[in-house]
Amino acid sequence: MDKEYIATPSKTIEIINKYNFAFQKKFGQNFLIDTHVLDKIIAAANITKEDTILEIGPGIGSMTQYLCEKAGQVISIEIDKMLIPILEDNLKDYDNFTLINADFLKLDINKLIEEHNCKNLKVVANLPYYITTPIIMSLFENNIPLDSITVMVQKEVALRMQASPSTKDYGALSLAIQYYSTTEIVANVPPNCFMPRPNVGSAVIKLSLRPDSPYEVKDSKFMFKLVRAAFNQRRKTLVNSLVNSPNLDITKDDVLNALENMNLSPTIRGEALSLEQFCELSNLL
Fold first, then answer.
1. Are 129 and 157 in contact (CB under 8 A)?
2. In a 3-state reduction of DSSP, which class is residue 248?
3. What DSSP element (H or E) covers 272?
4. Residues pairing with 206 in the sheet
5. Distance from C-alpha of 207 to C-alpha of 151, rounded to nearest angstrom
6. Residues 83 and 110: beta-carbon distance below 8 Å
7. Contact criterion met (CB below 8 Å) for 64 and 85
8. What would the DSSP string read from start to end of 98-127?
9. Once rounded to an integer, what is the mean pLDDT over residues 263-271?
10. What distance in Å separates the CA atoms of residue 163 and residue 169, rounded to the nearest whole number?
């Protein structure tokens, strides 16, 4: 790229001073200031001119600049209206860039895709850590026609996404991510790669969406109700967690019969069940 990089400490400070920008803690703003990390993200996302990139939380455009260089079309959604003039200025040279000032979680993304005639849609973003899970779950649950999601997240969240049964990181998020996609941690990113520095380590994780899930489930919504109930009180037995859940209408006998059918102990906890077993339990119930 022959243009000046936004994602360097000096350029970031220059932009912040020029616009007298104040970081908003409520939006979880941490701008990337390491071009090597950006190179890794772009390489992992495997972006071509055929792709439309959806970016959530572009900040001052550090990653957006890279995305515009590589992709056919980039649509960035930024909630902070103070960043809009900065982004418009920093990215004025790119005619493949669209900026939307909105709360991503309140947007109708399928409508947006239709309006902008998006092809080969990929999400690439340095996600605001406080809403990482709701953003990713909304992409999955709304059946957004995505190829992949390559995102910077808090390191412990990346570990939870990849976790296996009976580990401390394993939970509802692990099961949802693994049901919809295959995962790969692309890079670990220390706090000094951001401005301001976050208090936690970060990781870039790529989620490649499964065209068809290998898991047979009669009703995935019902299965995820089971999963959430099982992990809401993870120290309890699975039977008690499911029977006590206000979102499920199943009896103790229902659950005990299903577990017996699966050759599982009546005192098993939810965290011991694999995704495949949750699918089987869901189908039985």
1. yes
2. coil
3. none
4. 150, 184
5. 8
6. no
7. no
8. EEEES-GGGS-HHHHHHHTT--SEEEEEE-
9. 96
10. 6
pLDDT tens string 144-201: 999 999 999 999 999 999 999 999 999 999 999 999 999 999 999 999 999 999 999 9
**Measured distance CA(36)–CA(204) in Å, rounded:** 13
Kindly write down the DSSP assignment for every residue of 180-216, as one continuous string: HEEEEEEEEE-GGGEESPPSS-EEEEEEEEPSS-SS-
Strands 181-189 and 97-101 come out as unpaired
- Helix ranges (DSSP H) in the chain: 9-19, 35-45, 62-70, 84-90, 109-115, 132-141, 155-162, 172-180, 220-232, 238-243, 252-261, 275-284
Which tokens in the block code for residue 86? 């900065």
- Copy the structure tokens of residue 108: 């109708």
Do the beta carbons of residue 37 and residue 204 sit within 8 Å?
yes
Check whether 25 has a pLDDT greater than 80: no
Residue with tokens 């009976």: 166
Distance CA 51, CA 71 (A): 6
pLDDT of residue 24 exceeding 90, the answer is no
- Rounded to an integer, what distance in angstroms lies between the CA atom of residue 142 and that of residue 282? 21
Q: Tell me the whole-structure pTM to 2 decimals.
A: 0.91
Fill in the amino acid letter for 15.
I
CB-based contact 244:252 (threshold 8 Å): no
DSSP classification of residue 8: S
CA distance to 6, 149, 236, per residue, from 193 (Å): 13, 21, 40
